[in-house]
Write a structure and sequence with these properties.
This protein is α+β, with helices and mostly antiparallel strands and 354 residues long. The protein is globular. The strands form 3 sheets. A 7-stranded mixed beta sheet has the order 2-3-4-11-5-6-7, sandwiched between helices. It has a 3-stranded antiparallel beta sheet with strand order 9-8-10. The chain is 40% helix and 16% strand.
Protein backbone atom coordinates (compact mmCIF):
# COMPACT_ATOMS: atom_id res chain seq x y z
CA UNK A 1 0.00 0.00 0.00
CA UNK A 2 1.31 3.44 -0.97
CA UNK A 3 0.40 6.82 0.51
CA UNK A 4 1.27 10.39 -0.22
CA UNK A 5 3.13 11.87 2.73
CA UNK A 6 0.68 14.72 3.31
CA UNK A 7 -2.29 12.33 3.34
CA UNK A 8 -0.61 9.99 5.79
CA UNK A 9 0.31 12.91 8.07
CA UNK A 10 -3.26 14.14 8.14
CA UNK A 11 -4.56 10.64 8.90
CA UNK A 12 -2.19 10.30 11.85
CA UNK A 13 -2.85 13.82 13.09
CA UNK A 14 -6.59 13.21 13.29
CA UNK A 15 -6.10 9.93 15.14
CA UNK A 16 -3.72 11.52 17.62
CA UNK A 17 -6.06 14.45 18.11
CA UNK A 18 -8.88 11.98 18.79
CA UNK A 19 -6.60 10.33 21.36
CA UNK A 20 -6.27 13.61 23.23
CA UNK A 21 -3.49 15.67 21.65
CA UNK A 22 -4.07 19.21 20.46
CA UNK A 23 -4.19 19.79 16.72
CA UNK A 24 -0.70 21.31 16.84
CA UNK A 25 0.84 18.55 18.96
CA UNK A 26 -0.86 15.85 16.91
CA UNK A 27 0.68 17.43 13.83
CA UNK A 28 4.12 17.42 15.45
CA UNK A 29 3.98 13.71 16.25
CA UNK A 30 2.53 12.88 12.82
CA UNK A 31 5.27 14.93 11.15
CA UNK A 32 7.94 13.03 13.07
CA UNK A 33 6.52 9.58 12.29
CA UNK A 34 5.84 10.19 8.61
CA UNK A 35 9.19 11.96 8.33
CA UNK A 36 10.86 8.76 9.49
CA UNK A 37 9.05 6.77 6.80
CA UNK A 38 10.00 9.34 4.19
CA UNK A 39 13.68 8.87 5.06
CA UNK A 40 13.36 5.09 4.93
CA UNK A 41 13.54 4.64 8.71
CA UNK A 42 10.31 2.64 8.75
CA UNK A 43 11.02 1.12 12.18
CA UNK A 44 10.44 4.56 13.73
CA UNK A 45 7.60 5.63 11.47
CA UNK A 46 3.85 5.03 11.47
CA UNK A 47 4.36 1.54 12.89
CA UNK A 48 4.69 3.33 16.27
CA UNK A 49 1.20 4.83 16.06
CA UNK A 50 -0.62 2.00 17.83
CA UNK A 51 1.60 2.01 20.93
CA UNK A 52 1.46 5.81 21.14
CA UNK A 53 -2.33 5.82 21.02
CA UNK A 54 -2.56 2.94 23.48
CA UNK A 55 -0.42 4.75 26.05
CA UNK A 56 -2.33 8.00 25.55
CA UNK A 57 -5.64 6.24 26.14
CA UNK A 58 -4.29 4.43 29.20
CA UNK A 59 -3.32 7.78 30.69
CA UNK A 60 0.40 7.08 31.07
CA UNK A 61 1.26 9.74 28.49
CA UNK A 62 0.02 13.25 29.23
CA UNK A 63 -1.78 14.61 26.14
CA UNK A 64 -1.57 18.22 27.34
CA UNK A 65 1.69 18.49 29.29
CA UNK A 66 2.89 21.56 31.14
CA UNK A 67 6.39 21.59 29.66
CA UNK A 68 8.48 23.89 31.82
CA UNK A 69 12.02 25.03 32.52
CA UNK A 70 12.99 23.98 36.04
CA UNK A 71 16.60 25.23 36.03
CA UNK A 72 18.67 27.39 33.70
CA UNK A 73 21.79 29.46 33.22
CA UNK A 74 23.21 31.32 30.24
CA UNK A 75 24.35 28.04 28.68
CA UNK A 76 22.06 25.39 30.20
CA UNK A 77 18.40 24.41 30.37
CA UNK A 78 16.74 21.66 32.38
CA UNK A 79 13.23 20.90 31.17
CA UNK A 80 10.45 18.88 32.80
CA UNK A 81 8.37 17.28 30.05
CA UNK A 82 5.44 16.43 32.35
CA UNK A 83 5.16 12.96 30.77
CA UNK A 84 4.20 14.39 27.39
CA UNK A 85 4.82 12.89 23.97
CA UNK A 86 8.57 12.82 23.35
CA UNK A 87 8.31 14.60 19.99
CA UNK A 88 6.28 17.42 21.56
CA UNK A 89 8.61 17.74 24.55
CA UNK A 90 11.72 17.55 22.36
CA UNK A 91 10.46 20.14 19.90
CA UNK A 92 9.73 22.58 22.73
CA UNK A 93 13.17 21.94 24.21
CA UNK A 94 14.73 22.69 20.82
CA UNK A 95 12.73 25.91 20.44
CA UNK A 96 13.90 27.17 23.83
CA UNK A 97 17.43 25.98 23.16
CA UNK A 98 17.72 27.61 19.74
CA UNK A 99 16.76 30.96 21.20
CA UNK A 100 19.38 30.64 23.94
CA UNK A 101 22.07 29.37 21.54
CA UNK A 102 21.58 32.35 19.23
CA UNK A 103 21.81 34.70 22.21
CA UNK A 104 24.72 33.09 24.05
CA UNK A 105 26.56 31.04 21.42
CA UNK A 106 25.83 27.54 22.69
CA UNK A 107 23.49 25.67 24.98
CA UNK A 108 23.17 22.30 26.69
CA UNK A 109 19.61 21.09 27.25
CA UNK A 110 18.60 18.29 29.60
CA UNK A 111 15.08 16.85 29.57
CA UNK A 112 13.38 14.60 32.11
CA UNK A 113 9.88 13.09 32.38
CA UNK A 114 9.55 12.52 28.64
CA UNK A 115 8.70 9.53 26.47
CA UNK A 116 9.99 7.87 23.28
CA UNK A 117 10.91 10.80 21.01
CA UNK A 118 11.02 9.09 17.62
CA UNK A 119 14.11 9.78 15.52
CA UNK A 120 16.92 12.07 16.59
CA UNK A 121 17.12 13.32 13.00
CA UNK A 122 13.78 15.07 13.49
CA UNK A 123 15.36 17.38 16.07
CA UNK A 124 18.79 17.98 14.56
CA UNK A 125 17.14 18.98 11.30
CA UNK A 126 15.41 21.78 13.22
CA UNK A 127 18.76 23.04 14.43
CA UNK A 128 20.66 22.92 11.15
CA UNK A 129 17.92 24.97 9.47
CA UNK A 130 18.90 27.73 11.89
CA UNK A 131 22.64 27.30 11.17
CA UNK A 132 23.22 25.57 14.48
CA UNK A 133 25.37 22.47 14.80
CA UNK A 134 23.05 20.18 16.74
CA UNK A 135 23.49 17.02 18.78
CA UNK A 136 20.50 15.07 20.12
CA UNK A 137 20.54 11.96 22.27
CA UNK A 138 18.08 9.98 24.34
CA UNK A 139 18.08 7.06 26.67
CA UNK A 140 15.64 4.19 26.36
CA UNK A 141 14.33 1.21 28.35
CA UNK A 142 16.90 -1.48 29.13
CA UNK A 143 17.14 -3.84 26.17
CA UNK A 144 20.91 -4.25 25.85
CA UNK A 145 23.21 -6.12 28.21
CA UNK A 146 26.50 -4.55 29.30
CA UNK A 147 29.37 -5.98 27.28
CA UNK A 148 30.06 -9.47 28.58
CA UNK A 149 26.67 -9.79 30.30
CA UNK A 150 23.41 -11.46 29.28
CA UNK A 151 20.82 -9.43 31.22
CA UNK A 152 19.69 -6.13 29.67
CA UNK A 153 20.63 -3.03 31.65
CA UNK A 154 20.99 -0.12 29.23
CA UNK A 155 18.94 0.90 26.21
CA UNK A 156 19.84 1.09 22.54
CA UNK A 157 20.33 4.76 23.38
CA UNK A 158 20.34 6.71 20.09
CA UNK A 159 22.25 9.83 19.17
CA UNK A 160 22.08 12.18 16.20
CA UNK A 161 24.38 14.93 14.87
CA UNK A 162 23.40 17.56 12.34
CA UNK A 163 25.87 19.70 10.34
CA UNK A 164 24.64 22.28 7.79
CA UNK A 165 26.21 22.52 4.34
CA UNK A 166 25.91 25.10 1.55
CA UNK A 167 25.03 23.44 -1.76
CA UNK A 168 24.59 19.93 -0.36
CA UNK A 169 22.07 18.52 2.06
CA UNK A 170 23.06 18.73 5.73
CA UNK A 171 25.17 15.90 7.10
CA UNK A 172 22.81 13.99 9.40
CA UNK A 173 24.04 11.11 11.53
CA UNK A 174 21.23 9.30 13.36
CA UNK A 175 21.93 5.92 14.88
CA UNK A 176 21.28 3.61 17.77
CA UNK A 177 24.17 2.33 19.87
CA UNK A 178 23.13 -1.23 19.14
CA UNK A 179 24.08 -3.14 15.98
CA UNK A 180 20.60 -2.27 14.77
CA UNK A 181 17.73 -0.19 16.13
CA UNK A 182 15.48 -2.39 18.27
CA UNK A 183 12.53 -1.09 16.26
CA UNK A 184 13.77 -3.16 13.31
CA UNK A 185 13.63 -6.29 15.44
CA UNK A 186 10.11 -5.34 16.56
CA UNK A 187 9.12 -4.92 12.91
CA UNK A 188 10.61 -8.32 12.03
CA UNK A 189 8.70 -9.95 14.90
CA UNK A 190 5.45 -8.32 13.75
CA UNK A 191 6.02 -9.62 10.22
CA UNK A 192 7.17 -13.07 11.35
CA UNK A 193 10.58 -12.68 9.71
CA UNK A 194 14.01 -13.80 10.97
CA UNK A 195 16.76 -11.33 11.82
CA UNK A 196 20.39 -11.52 10.67
CA UNK A 197 23.03 -13.18 12.81
CA UNK A 198 24.90 -10.80 15.08
CA UNK A 199 21.93 -8.59 15.93
CA UNK A 200 20.93 -10.14 19.24
CA UNK A 201 21.19 -12.89 21.85
CA UNK A 202 18.35 -14.78 23.53
CA UNK A 203 17.67 -14.66 27.28
CA UNK A 204 20.25 -17.42 27.84
CA UNK A 205 22.94 -15.39 26.09
CA UNK A 206 22.98 -17.50 22.91
CA UNK A 207 23.08 -15.90 19.43
CA UNK A 208 19.64 -15.93 17.80
CA UNK A 209 18.02 -15.11 14.47
CA UNK A 210 14.49 -15.41 15.91
CA UNK A 211 13.07 -11.91 16.32
CA UNK A 212 10.80 -12.80 19.25
CA UNK A 213 13.64 -14.53 21.11
CA UNK A 214 15.75 -11.43 20.49
CA UNK A 215 13.09 -9.22 22.03
CA UNK A 216 13.02 -11.48 25.08
CA UNK A 217 16.83 -11.44 25.25
CA UNK A 218 19.22 -8.62 24.45
CA UNK A 219 20.23 -6.67 21.39
CA UNK A 220 23.98 -6.37 20.86
CA UNK A 221 25.96 -3.10 20.89
CA UNK A 222 27.68 -1.99 17.70
CA UNK A 223 31.43 -2.47 17.85
CA UNK A 224 31.18 -4.64 20.95
CA UNK A 225 32.55 -2.81 24.01
CA UNK A 226 32.71 0.51 22.11
CA UNK A 227 28.98 0.65 21.46
CA UNK A 228 28.27 -0.41 25.03
CA UNK A 229 30.50 2.37 26.39
CA UNK A 230 28.91 5.04 24.18
CA UNK A 231 25.42 3.87 25.19
CA UNK A 232 26.43 4.13 28.83
CA UNK A 233 27.68 7.70 28.37
CA UNK A 234 24.42 8.68 26.63
CA UNK A 235 22.45 7.22 29.54
CA UNK A 236 24.50 9.22 32.02
CA UNK A 237 23.93 12.47 30.10
CA UNK A 238 20.25 11.83 29.28
CA UNK A 239 19.21 10.06 32.46
CA UNK A 240 21.55 10.45 35.41
CA UNK A 241 22.38 14.13 34.81
CA UNK A 242 18.82 15.24 34.02
CA UNK A 243 17.06 13.42 36.85
CA UNK A 244 15.18 11.15 34.43
CA UNK A 245 15.13 7.39 34.68
CA UNK A 246 18.20 5.45 33.60
CA UNK A 247 19.01 1.83 32.79
CA UNK A 248 16.27 -0.46 34.15
CA UNK A 249 14.61 2.50 35.91
CA UNK A 250 13.02 3.62 32.63
CA UNK A 251 9.62 2.06 32.16
CA UNK A 252 9.07 -0.06 29.06
CA UNK A 253 6.91 1.49 26.37
CA UNK A 254 5.60 -1.95 25.40
CA UNK A 255 5.14 -3.44 28.85
CA UNK A 256 4.68 -0.99 31.72
CA UNK A 257 1.17 0.17 30.90
CA UNK A 258 0.46 1.59 34.36
CA UNK A 259 3.43 3.99 34.62
CA UNK A 260 4.92 6.91 32.69
CA UNK A 261 8.28 6.13 31.09
CA UNK A 262 10.41 9.01 32.49
CA UNK A 263 12.72 8.95 29.47
CA UNK A 264 15.51 11.54 29.38
CA UNK A 265 16.98 13.47 26.45
CA UNK A 266 20.05 15.66 26.01
CA UNK A 267 20.64 18.25 23.30
CA UNK A 268 23.56 20.51 22.43
CA UNK A 269 23.34 23.44 20.02
CA UNK A 270 26.30 25.49 18.78
CA UNK A 271 26.10 28.81 16.93
CA UNK A 272 28.57 28.46 14.05
CA UNK A 273 28.94 32.23 13.71
CA UNK A 274 30.77 32.35 17.07
CA UNK A 275 33.63 30.46 15.40
CA UNK A 276 33.64 31.71 11.81
CA UNK A 277 31.24 33.20 9.25
CA UNK A 278 28.46 30.69 8.59
CA UNK A 279 28.93 30.80 4.82
CA UNK A 280 32.64 30.05 5.17
CA UNK A 281 31.86 27.09 7.42
CA UNK A 282 29.36 25.74 4.90
CA UNK A 283 31.88 26.13 2.08
CA UNK A 284 34.39 24.11 4.09
CA UNK A 285 31.79 21.40 4.75
CA UNK A 286 31.01 21.32 1.02
CA UNK A 287 34.72 20.92 0.31
CA UNK A 288 34.93 18.00 2.72
CA UNK A 289 31.87 16.33 1.17
CA UNK A 290 33.30 16.71 -2.34
CA UNK A 291 36.69 15.35 -1.35
CA UNK A 292 35.15 12.35 0.40
CA UNK A 293 32.82 11.53 -2.49
CA UNK A 294 35.62 11.83 -5.05
CA UNK A 295 38.06 9.69 -3.08
CA UNK A 296 39.14 6.32 -4.58
CA UNK A 297 36.51 3.60 -4.26
CA UNK A 298 37.02 0.03 -3.15
CA UNK A 299 36.28 -2.79 -5.59
CA UNK A 300 32.55 -3.20 -6.15
CA UNK A 301 31.64 0.20 -4.68
CA UNK A 302 29.71 2.51 -7.01
CA UNK A 303 29.43 5.55 -4.76
CA UNK A 304 30.73 6.80 -1.43
CA UNK A 305 28.09 8.41 0.78
CA UNK A 306 28.20 10.83 3.70
CA UNK A 307 25.85 10.32 6.67
CA UNK A 308 22.25 11.12 5.84
CA UNK A 309 22.75 11.10 2.06
CA UNK A 310 21.04 7.76 1.50
CA UNK A 311 18.07 8.92 3.59
CA UNK A 312 17.76 12.12 1.55
CA UNK A 313 17.76 10.05 -1.65
CA UNK A 314 14.97 7.85 -0.26
CA UNK A 315 13.04 10.94 0.84
CA UNK A 316 13.14 12.43 -2.65
CA UNK A 317 11.88 9.17 -4.12
CA UNK A 318 9.09 8.74 -1.59
CA UNK A 319 7.94 12.35 -1.88
CA UNK A 320 7.55 11.76 -5.60
CA UNK A 321 6.23 8.20 -5.60
CA UNK A 322 4.60 7.83 -2.20
CA UNK A 323 5.40 6.01 1.04
CA UNK A 324 5.06 2.21 0.85
CA UNK A 325 3.52 0.43 3.84
CA UNK A 326 3.56 -3.31 4.38
CA UNK A 327 0.22 -5.07 4.64
CA UNK A 328 0.87 -5.67 8.37
CA UNK A 329 1.54 -2.00 9.11
CA UNK A 330 -1.39 -0.89 6.96
CA UNK A 331 -3.82 -3.17 8.81
CA UNK A 332 -2.40 -2.07 12.15
CA UNK A 333 -2.85 1.66 11.58
CA UNK A 334 -6.22 1.02 9.93
CA UNK A 335 -7.48 -0.67 13.10
CA UNK A 336 -6.13 2.15 15.25
CA UNK A 337 -7.94 4.66 13.07
CA UNK A 338 -11.24 2.79 13.17
CA UNK A 339 -11.08 2.64 16.97
CA UNK A 340 -10.66 6.43 16.93
CA UNK A 341 -13.42 7.05 14.38
CA UNK A 342 -10.99 7.90 11.58
CA UNK A 343 -11.17 5.85 8.37
CA UNK A 344 -8.02 5.23 6.38
CA UNK A 345 -9.92 4.93 3.09
CA UNK A 346 -10.61 8.67 3.26
CA UNK A 347 -6.88 9.36 3.01
CA UNK A 348 -5.85 6.93 0.28
CA UNK A 349 -4.81 8.17 -3.13
CA UNK A 350 -5.83 5.69 -5.79
CA UNK A 351 -3.54 7.34 -8.34
CA UNK A 352 -0.45 5.98 -6.59
CA UNK A 353 -1.76 2.55 -5.77
CA UNK A 354 -2.99 2.90 -2.21
Amino acid sequence: MIFKAEHLKEYLRRILQNAGLSETDGGTVADSLVGANLRGVDSHGVTRLSIYVKRLKLGVVNPKPNIRVVAESDATLLIDGDDGMGQVVGKRAMELGMEKARRNGAVYIGVKKSTHFGTGAYFVQQGVKENLITYAMSNAPSTMAPWGGIQPYIGTNPYAFGIPARKYNPIILDMATSVVARGKIITAAQEGKPIPEGWAIDKEGRPTTDAQSALEGSVLPFGGPKGYAISLMIDIMSGVLTGAGFGPHINNIYGDYDKPQNVGHFFQLIDISRFMPVDLFKQRVDQMIEEIKSSPKAAGVNEIFVPGEIEYNIERKRLAEGIPLTREVYEDIKQVGEACGVHIEDFQDKSIGA
